[in-house]
Design brief:
The protein is mostly beta strands. The protein folds into two domains: about 70 residues, Phage tail protein beta-alpha-beta fold, CATH 3.55.50; about 550 residues, Maltoporin, Chain A, CATH 2.40.170.20. It has nine helices and 50 strands. It has a 24-stranded antiparallel beta sheet that branches. The two termini are about 40 Å apart. Belongs to the TonB-dependent receptor family. It is a multi-pass membrane protein.
Length: about 850
């Protein structure tokens, strides 16, 4: 072949390649009717793979591309020297991925054969491709995947369909995997600390190792002032270990009512988590971590194909960690494994199986402290954060948890799809420890009581949860109108049993010199002060729901409704050990309770997408959440929480950038919020209606390939707005004072103002060769210590810093090696996360964590 013929042949190949990509773009952007064109493309163009290549040096990115694409790349290393790429992420052809990877660089490629791509410098006469954005299912990020940098633009959490965030008429904030890694988050509380409208660390380190929010009552997270609910892979989950960041690809905060899709959830919203599952491209990662308080950690994350064709893939993630905490005698230990398999049965059917086991013999949960000496200075100043106000002999707290899950999907045709998710959770919580009760007026004598689980092996709680969600999704086009219809039914069943033995005789310590004066003795027949409680319960809930997403050009209307039926049985017993009588007296603690009812919830809203990237939206939604097992002071069962929200806002993607800005204003009312009884200690009353109104602003931005930012501001005014009740004020020792009207009082433990920002910046590579630094600031406004608003918990400002170094910028042979360091609460500020009546929770002291990771 002559040189001229060779050049002509190469130009023909390039033209044919670009033409094929263009045909794919046109076919996919024109909808399903044009897909037949794409189906006729050669295999090298229509072969689709999942890519996730972050911004980095071009040489290391090309090495990763070769692994993920199965293609060979041939080039002179000199053309990639000192060249960086913005990276690429999404499901697409290898050629489209490489085009995106090379966009903005002086390098281009052409095909040598079906498996080899030749890279060369761009010439003046060469064709230069702009950003390649193919519609349909080709070049688009996954709605359940890790996101790209700090920006995610698709979600399935709110609608249970893959939907752009700009077509969803309510607030959804996504924490990507890259953000979790850069911040070195060790708990879900830390993952959520930079999100608007969420206060995730109100109890400080008192629940450090719990890992996640309790799905029954919110635990430690609040959204827009109300208790949160936790869902994992779209299903209700009580498994705390599901919130282990090492097992998560993505965390989403759905702020505002979400009952129409999920049934029971609070008016403030829910937290949606996505566990790691098999990837379409090989993934191999190991880390070794270290930190203060004696932390040592190791993780693995492996994914690859099992069969040669790749229709059967696996993934396995595992973690082992041990450390102390800022509190003496409180430790954290955890080992866990998360294996999964994905089977692409055929081109239309897939099945994913997932299992998890987590053993946490020490969950790192610290204790709370009296208000006097924490919020207010005591006779000897402030109680040190390291002080353990309990009995070291009785100091066990942990859990064992197991989970099985499957996800099944089948596409009947281009119009109709069936999806089903199932999960089974089994958790056992055990403890044998003490809790504080009150501080004497001498300012030093603190009463504590001993308790332990009595269900065998110090087990205090056994919970088994079965959840199933099945749905049909239809896609229809009628002229200018396209619709996505969803009809589903979900079911959950929970068996729960609590068993506690409680020493009613108080032990005392001096908070300034804590030496326990006596110890509980749980041996049979040893004391008259032991009492045992049993709380078996079970509940069922069935929900039927529908949703219609109607798109007319730039207008998207979303409407849906749901009917829920629930049934709850609860029975408690009380027994007291009596030495004098020589037996155990068993008596009911309260009458058996059965709660059963039904509720209808709905939502409706719209978005309008302007061509210049701005999307205004408006929505109305309702919430419903049974208060299972909550008994009022008069002996009646608490009514379900019912709420509604009006929300309006703006979402803006700045054109030709990866900058996503949002603004939202909301007004929420929730009825039957419970409050402490002013007359009977430990009992509750129906507090009436609470109203939450506020504003949230957020920014998620990959400003450049080297600069990533997340920032937010939240304002929330939350009060009891309709109540005839009174609430009791308390003094600094926890002693009751006068009663005051509840109406108009702020809810406690939720700040009115929160501001935060986190920035990660890779320094110029030609000077620093892969060094990145980051900085975060978190401002938490004041809260009230109780609903009587007796005391204010002061505002606090915290600073976080970190750095990470990518060794691939030094040498291609070190590609995949990375070192990271993160430090939270840089100034080691002593602050109180929140208080309630006579107890306060210290926030986390300075925490230092680093790790060495290797990808291959």
């Amino acid at each position: 072949m002559s040189p001229n013929e060779h050049r002509a042949t190469c130009q023909t190949r390039r033209l044919r390649h670009y033409l094929m990509i263009g045909i794919a773009q046109i076919a996919l952007s024109n909808g399903a009717s044009s897909l037949a064109v794409a189906e006729d493309l050669p295999r090298q163009v229509t072969e689709i793979k999942n890519f996730h290549i972050p911004a980095q040096s071009l040489s290391s990115a090309l090495a990763t591309f070769a692994q993920q694409s199965g293609r060979q790349t041939s080039y002179d290393p000199a053309i990639a020297k000192n060249v960086s790429t913005n990276g690429v992420s999404g499901v697409m052809t290898p050629e489209v991925a490489l085009s995106s990877l090379l966009n903005g660089t002086p390098v281009q490629f052409h095909r040598l054969n079906a498996h080899t791509l030749i890279l060369e410098r761009k010439g003046a006469a060469n064709i230069t491709l702009g950003p390649v954005r193919v519609g349909g299912m080709v070049n688009r990020e996954s709605a359940t995947g890790p996101g790209v940098g700090y920006v995610a633009k698709y979600s399935s959490a709110s609608t249970k369909t893959d939907t752009p965030l700009t077509e969803i008429p309510n607030s959804i904030y996504v924490i990507t995997k890259d953000q979790m890694v850069d911040q070195q988050s060790q708990t879900v509380q830390e993952v959520l600390r930079y999100m608007p409208g969420i206060y995730s660390e109100s109890t400080g380190t008192a629940s450090w190792g719990s890992g996640s929010v309790s799905s029954q009552g919110g635990g430690n997270f609040t959204q827009r002032g109300f208790a949160s609910t936790q869902y994992v892979d779209g299903l209700l989950s009580n498994t705390q270990a599901s919130g282990e960041p090492a097992f998560l690809d993505r965390v989403e905060a759905l702020n505002g009512p979400s009952s129409v899709m999920y049934g029971q959830s609070g008016a403030g919203g829910l937290i949606s988590m996505q566990l790691k599952k098999p990837t379409d491209t090989p993934l191999h990662n190991v880390t070794l971590g270290f930190g203060n308080w004696g932390r040592y950690e190791s993780t693995i994350d492996l994914s690859d194909k099992i069969t040669k064709s790749g229709n059967l893939k696996y993934r396995i993630a595992a973690i082992g960690v041990t450390q102390g905490t800022q509190t003496d005698h409180v430790d954290y230990h955890r080992v866990g494994v998360l294996p999964s398999i994905k089977w692409d049965i055929d081109g239309k059917t897939s099945l994913t199986l997932l299992g998890m086991y987590m053993y946490t013999p020490g969950d790192g949960s610290g204790n709370y402290y009296p208000l006097y000496g924490t919020l207010l200075p005591g006779k000897n100043g402030y109680i040190p954060r390291s002080r353990f106000l309990g009995d070291p002999k009785y100091n066990t707290s942990g859990n064992k948890e197991a989970k099985f899950e499957y996800q099944f999907s089948h596409k009947f045709n281009k119009y109709l799809e069936f999806q089903q998710n199932f999960s089974y959770d089994n958790s056992r919580r055990f403890f044998n420890n003490t809790f504080g009760s009150g501080l004497a007026t001498d300012g030093q004598t603190y009463s504590i009581y001993g308790w332990k689980g009595n269900l065998g092996g110090n087990t205090s709680q056994i919970e088994k949860t079965v959840a199933l969600d099945s749905r049909l999704i239809g896609h229809f086009n009628t002229g200018p109108v396209s619709q996505t219809l969803l009809i589903g039914v979900d079911y959950r069943h929970i068996d729960e049993e609590w068993g506690l033995t409680y020493d009613r005789k108080a032990m005392t310590i001096n908070i300034w010199d804590p030496i326990v004066s006596s110890h509980p003795d749980y041996s049979a027949g040893s004391t008259d002060t032991l009492a045992s409680y049993s709380y078996p319960s079970k509940w069922n809930q069935v929900g039927v729901y529908f949703q219609d997403q109607i798109k007319i050009k730039k207008l998207t209307i979303t409407a849906g409704g749901r009917e829920d039926w629930y049934d709850y049985d609860y029975h408690s017993t009380y027994s007291r050990q009596s030495v004098t009588l020589g037996n155990i007296a068993l008596e009911p603690l309260s009458a058996p309770i059965n709660q059963n009812s039904h509720a209808f919830t709905w939502r409706a809203g719209f978005t309008y997408n302007f061509d210049f990237g701005l999307t205004p939206y408006f929505s109305f939604s309702k919430s419903f959440n049974p208060q299972y097992g909550s008994i009022l002071a008069d002996g009646s069962a608490a009514q379900p929480l019912t709420g509604n929200q009006l929300e309006a806002g703006l979402k803006y993607i700045i054109p030709h950038t990866n900058v996503f800005l949002t603004a939202a204003a909301y007004h929420i009312k929730e009825k039957h919020v419970l409050e402490s009884s002013p007359d009977i200690v430990g009992e509750q009353i129906d507090g009436g209606t609470a109203t939450s109104k506020g504003v949230e602003l957020s920014a998620h931005a990959n400003v450049t390939k080297d600069l990533r930012i997340t920032a937010s501001y939240s304002f929330n005014d939350m009060r009891y707005t309709r109540s005839n009740n009174t609430v009791r004020r308390y003094d600094i020792y926890g002693n009751p004072l006068e009663k005051v009207p509840l109406q108009g009082k702020y809810l406690n433990a939720y700040p009115r103002n929160m501001v935060n920002m986190f920035v990660d910046y890779t320094l110029p590579r030609d000077i620093f060769h892969g060094l990145s630094v980051n900085f975060g600031i978190r401002y938490i406004g004041f809260t009230y210590a109780d609903t009587a608003n007796s005391f204010k918990v002061p505002a606090h400002t915290l600073f976080d810093v970190g750095a990470h170094y990518d060794f691939s910028d030094i040498s291609p042979s070190l590609s995949g090696l990375k070192v990271s360091l993160a430090m939270s609460n840089l100034t080691n500020e002593r602050y109180v996360g929140s208080c309630s009546t006579n107890q306060c929770y210290y926030g986390q002291a300075r925490r230092v964590y680093g790790n060495i990771s290797y990808n291959w």
